[in-house]
């Protein structure tokens, strides 16, 4: 079996057995063709099943290095490696090729994206006014929903919570005016942390609770229209509706409010370790991503304001 025949057999199997989409087949077929073309040059001859079975991890690393020199991004090289792994495993399982030590090959790690925060004015607008989006065209308890969304988004921005953390809160957890205790949050990995809550956020939650009505301490704090715990998708749609009304950017999402909380604290001089604790990050390196956001904002300000920047 030649390399081209092996590639065709793999793509046919993906289409028939895995029902891969046209786009997937096109991308994987291109990746495999690039790989086979490289091996022809690298090994000095046409590639067949025996040659593929004799590959070493160094051969795959050489291919990735060439693609990097050709301008492939880290994400593109990672995708190519995933496709090639699948191609070679197919040949091992279905055509008797010698198994390769693919586990020894680590793909390039894409850099985590820089968090996209809102400006302070945009974040404040969401925390203050986003609930009003529900007051337009809704007939099921619009006042309760408006107050709920205002309280929820104020909490996300004011305390830096993840949307799942906020929606998991029960009535017993509600931070109310006059209290000075921190909010107890259960984050990823069931890790518990204490987060201070601003008076404005406590006031928004108190206003929502007056609309929500009484309930047991173990009932959900944030309710949907049917009286069940609010679904994250509903909160995300509410913010999408508001950002269209308010002309906010597409990255104005519930999670962007958490990013904004951290970015604005850092810009105001807060200690990175303190922000790590407030966000519940297990590693400081995760929190350090926000220094890139702050640096980018500083550079943008410099370019806009400095007389020699143009």
UniProtKB/TrEMBL annotation:
Where the record annotates domain Core-binding (CB), the positions are: 1-92
- Asked if the Swiss-Prot or TrEMBL record annotates the protein with the keyword Cell cycle, the reply is yes
The signal peptide here is none
Keywords assigned by UniProt, alphabetized: Cell cycle, Cell division, Chromosome partition, Cytoplasm, DNA integration, DNA recombination, DNA-binding
- InterPro entries annotated for this entry? CB, DNA_brk_join_enz, Integrase-like_cat_sf, Integrase_catalytic, Integrase_recombinase_N, Integrase_SAM-like_N, Tyrosine_recombinase_XerC/XerD, Tyrosine_recombinase_XerCD
Q: Biological process GO terms, please?
A: cell division; chromosome segregation; DNA transposition
Q: Which GO terms describe its cellular component?
A: cytoplasm
Q: Where in the cell is it found?
A: Cytoplasm
Catalytic site: 162, 188, 255, 258, 281, 290
> Cross-referenced Pfam families, in alphabetical order?
Phage_int_SAM_1, Phage_integrase
> What are the recorded GO MF terms, alphabetically?
DNA binding; tyrosine-based site-specific recombinase activity
In which broad location class does this protein mainly occur, judging by the first location in its UniProt entry?
cytoplasm
Q: For the Tyr recombinase domain, which residue ranges apply?
A: 113-303
Assembly mode:
Forms a cyclic heterotetrameric complex composed of two molecules of XerC and two molecules of XerD.
Q: Which family does it belong to?
A: Belongs to the 'phage' integrase family. XerC subfamily.
Q: What does this protein do?
A: Site-specific tyrosine recombinase, which acts by catalyzing the cutting and rejoining of the recombining DNA molecules. The XerC-XerD complex is essential to convert dimers of the bacterial chromosome into monomers to permit their segregation at cell division. It also contributes to the segregational stability of plasmids.
Q: What is this protein called?
A: Tyrosine recombinase XerC
């Amino acid at each position: 079996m030649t390399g081209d025949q092996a590639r065709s057999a793999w793509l046919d199997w993906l289409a028939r057995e895995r029902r891969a989409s046209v786009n997937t087949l096109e991308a994987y077929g291109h990746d495999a063709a690039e790989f086979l073309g490289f091996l022809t040059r690298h090994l000095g001859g046409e590639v067949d099943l025996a040659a593929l079975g004799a590959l070493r991890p160094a051969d795959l690393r050489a291919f990735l290095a060439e693609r990097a020199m050709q301008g492939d991004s880290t994400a593109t090289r990672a995708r190519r490696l995933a496709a090639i792994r699948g191609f070679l495993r197919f040949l091992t399982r279905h055509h008797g090729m010698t198994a390769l030590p693919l586990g020894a090959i680590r793909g390039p790690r894409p850099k985590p994206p820089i968090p996209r925060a809102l400006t302070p004015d945009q974040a404040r607008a969401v925390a203050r006014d986003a609930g009003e989006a529900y007051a337009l065209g809704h007939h099921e308890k619009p006042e309760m929903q408006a107050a709920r969304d205002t309280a929820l988004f104020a909490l996300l921005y004011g305390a830096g919570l993840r949307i799942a953390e906020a929606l998991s809160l029960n009535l017993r957890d509600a931070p109310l005016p006059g209290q000075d205790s921190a909010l107890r949050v259960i984050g990823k990995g069931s890790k518990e942390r204490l987060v201070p809550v601003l008076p404005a956020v406590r006031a928004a939650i108190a206003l929502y609770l007056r609309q929500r009505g009484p309930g047991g301490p173990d009932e959900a704090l944030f309710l949907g229209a049917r009286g069940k715990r609010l679904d994250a998708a509903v909160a995300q749609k509410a913010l999408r509706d508001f950002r269209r009304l308010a002309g906010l950017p597409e990255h104005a999402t519930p999670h962007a409010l958490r990013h904004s909380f951290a970015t604005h604290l850092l810009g105001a001089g807060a200690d990175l370790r303190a922000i790590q604790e407030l966000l519940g990050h297990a590693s400081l390196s995760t929190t350090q991503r926000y220094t890139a956001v702050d640096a980018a904002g500083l550079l943008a300000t410099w370019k806009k304001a400095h007389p020699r920047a143009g």
